[in-house]
User: Which sequence fits this backbone?
């Protein structure tokens, strides 16, 4: 059997064995059946992309629940982004309020940015946002964060490098 | 999942350094030339730089005025969520909103319907054993026969051991109904400010965290004892009684309000509540905004309202009060004097 088929067969077996347990486990935490089913599904899809071998059931379940936890945190972050976007709209002059389609694509992009920035240390993330989104100079950022301009530059390099690594990790 | 270093790591690192040089304007001519030279040196450098540009492009997508303001707000909000060191006394989202949007944009008449929950607590709620989202009310049957209901946007942990049973409220509101049981293990509900213990008799009580400083306990059946964490005193509360407490003190016992129980059935029962508080209360169950004109904030609301049907609630209000309600989008309500 070729390795690809072997992989998906193994995930298939895991699915048969653990999917209803996993859905129940997530539902007991989220209280919402549909969302739990979606997240369980995504967990197995994730596993298909990066298969892993387990020596026993406990190990498999521990691994599955870790992935699921990561996925529902993503889901929660996404909700936060959507909510913050909606809030911000009420504070924008009417003529500038983006259309629904535009909003949808912006939210998509913001989720991606947010996921990327979430991995950065706080000051590094702030530096990147202040520079790229608020258009501040390094001197202004340095004043705002009470660090040296040299430090700001170092934060910028660090931020970009981590973003690049994050993206290349995602595209694997 | 640990990621291994990509093969082009060195080039990505160099490209990130160049990005840091070029992102501050104005760029010195010498830097510009040196960068150009680096870029032309090697195809791998160009490839790495393309990646930098694709990250940069994500930010520059927000070019028009409106989406730029929104993007700033979203990222400033969500990135402050990541700070684990943020203490409960630091900025809440309302302050953050003011700070970020400042005086630009249209000022809201009143900004309510907004959870004041500090963000780190929201994050820990997501990791709790049980939790609900905004608008969700869930019932749980626990193995000892205890029933628990979590109200909107709430979270709790369960820890049952050999000689204790404890439910701890992480955030929000919980209604607990214990069985008159032969279970010899002590039962308690702990929260940010204290612990509530029930005896062997059947009890039903609600615990709701009101703010960082205060929690309310309302008892509907049986009797419980309340002990704030920082106090030597405890107090017995009986069915029909309610008390607000902090870590150090307990206010006078009051008659229990139906408010803390009726949500279990999807209802909001209010006896004499200012409209501003009422909208904040109903706002807990819905995403979005409620703008309220201060001139109508003190109107007194009485009645029974469906928690999940905002349209119906608004039409009930507009029949009882001289107010004008605009509800142009499902998440945006604006209330002013008629």
Assistant:
């Amino acid at each position: 059997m070729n390795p690809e088929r072997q992989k998906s067969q193994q995930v298939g077996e895991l699915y048969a064995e653990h999917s209803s347990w996993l859905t129940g486990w997530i539902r007991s935490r989220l209280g919402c059946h549909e969302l739990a089913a979606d997240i369980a599904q995504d967990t197995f899809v994730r596993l298909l992309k990066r298969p892993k071998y387990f020596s026993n059931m406990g190990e498999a379940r521990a691994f599955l629940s870790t992935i699921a936890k990561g996925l529902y945190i993503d889901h929660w972050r996404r909700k936060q982004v959507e909510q913050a976007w909606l809030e911000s709209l009420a504070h924008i002059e009417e003529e500038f309020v983006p259309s629904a389609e535009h909003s949808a694509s912006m939210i998509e992009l913001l989720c991606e940015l947010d996921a990327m920035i979430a991995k950065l240390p706080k000051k590094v993330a702030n530096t990147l946002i202040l520079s790229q989104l608020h258009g501040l100079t390094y001197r202004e950022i340095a004043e705002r964060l009470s660090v040296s301009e040299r430090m700001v530059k170092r934060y910028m390099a660090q931020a970009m490098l981590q973003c690049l690594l994050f993206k290349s990790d995602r595209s694997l | 999942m640990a990621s291994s270093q990509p093969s082009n790591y060195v080039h990505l690192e160099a490209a990130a350094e160049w990005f840091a040089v070029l992102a501050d304007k104005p760029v010195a001519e010498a830097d510009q030339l040196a960068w150009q030279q680096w870029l032309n040196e090697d195809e791998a450098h160009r490839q790495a730089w393309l990646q930098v540009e694709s990250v940069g492009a994500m930010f520059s997508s927000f070019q028009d005025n409106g989406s730029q303001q929104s993007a700033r707000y979203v990222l400033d909000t969500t990135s402050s969520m990541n700070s684990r060191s943020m203490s409960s006394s630091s900025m809440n989202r309302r302050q953050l909103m003011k700070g970020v949007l400042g005086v630009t944009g249209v000022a809201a008449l009143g900004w309510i319907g907004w959870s004041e929950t500090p963000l780190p607590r929201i994050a820990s709620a997501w990791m709790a054993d049980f939790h609900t989202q905004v608008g969700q009310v869930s019932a749980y049957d626990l193995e000892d026969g205890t029933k628990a209901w979590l109200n909107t946007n709430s979270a709790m942990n369960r820890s049952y051991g050999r000689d204790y049973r404890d439910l701890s409220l992480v955030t929000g509101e919980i209604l607990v109904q214990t069985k008159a049981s032969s279970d010899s293990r002590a039962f308690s509900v702990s929260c940010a400010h204290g612990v509530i213990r029930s005896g062997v008799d059947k009890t039903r009580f609600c615990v709701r965290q009101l703010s960082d400083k205060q929690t309310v306990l309302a008892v509907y059946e049986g009797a419980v004892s309340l002990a704030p964490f920082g106090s030597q005193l405890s107090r017995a509360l009986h069915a029909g009684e309610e008390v607000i407490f902090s870590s150090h003190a307990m206010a006078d016992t009051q008659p229990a309000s139906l408010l803390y129980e009726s949500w279990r059935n999807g209802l909001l029962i209010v006896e004499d509540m200012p409209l501003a508080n009422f909208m904040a209360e109903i706002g807990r169950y819905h995403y979005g905004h409620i703008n309220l004109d201060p001139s109508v904030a003190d109107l007194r609301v009485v009645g029974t309202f469906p928690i999940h049907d905002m349209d119906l609630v608004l039409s009930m209000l507009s029949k009882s009060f001289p107010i004008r309600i605009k509800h142009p989008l499902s998440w945006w309500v604006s209330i002013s004097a008629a």
